[in-house]
Amino acid sequence: MERGFSVTYKENKVVKSISQLNKNDEVTIHLQDGKASAKIVEIEEKVGEKND
After folding, report:
1. pLDDT 10s digits, 3-22
2. Strand partners, 9
3. Rounded CA gap, 35 and 29, in Å?
4. Which of 6, 29, 34, 46 has its CA 20 to 30 A from that of 18?
5. CA dihedral 28, 40, 4, 14 (to 10 degrees)
């Protein structure tokens, strides 16, 4: 995470896809120097791109 990456968790499981999220879900974002809590307010799927 020293390169600026973060890892997002929902219910103690790593979020790997927007399909795991719903509007108003609460998630925890782990960063290099701590963590933050967030609420999902919008979900936007990539158009024309699947499984980058």
Report:
1. 789 999 999 999 999 999 99
2. 14, 28
3. 5
4. 34
5. 50
What's 3-37 look like in SS3? CCCCEEEECCEECCCHHHCCCCCEEEEEECCEEEE
In this structure, is the dihedral angle defined by the CA atoms of residues 5, 14, 23 and 25, taken in order, positive or negative? Answer: negative
Torsion of CA 11, 13, 17, 21, to 10 degrees: 0
Q: Tell if the pTM clears 0.90, that is, is over it.
A: no
- Residue 44's nearest CA partner among 24, 27, 23 is 23
Strand order in 7-10's β-sheet? 13-14, 7-10, 26-31, 34-39
Instruction: Give the residue extent of every domain in the chain.
Output: 7-39
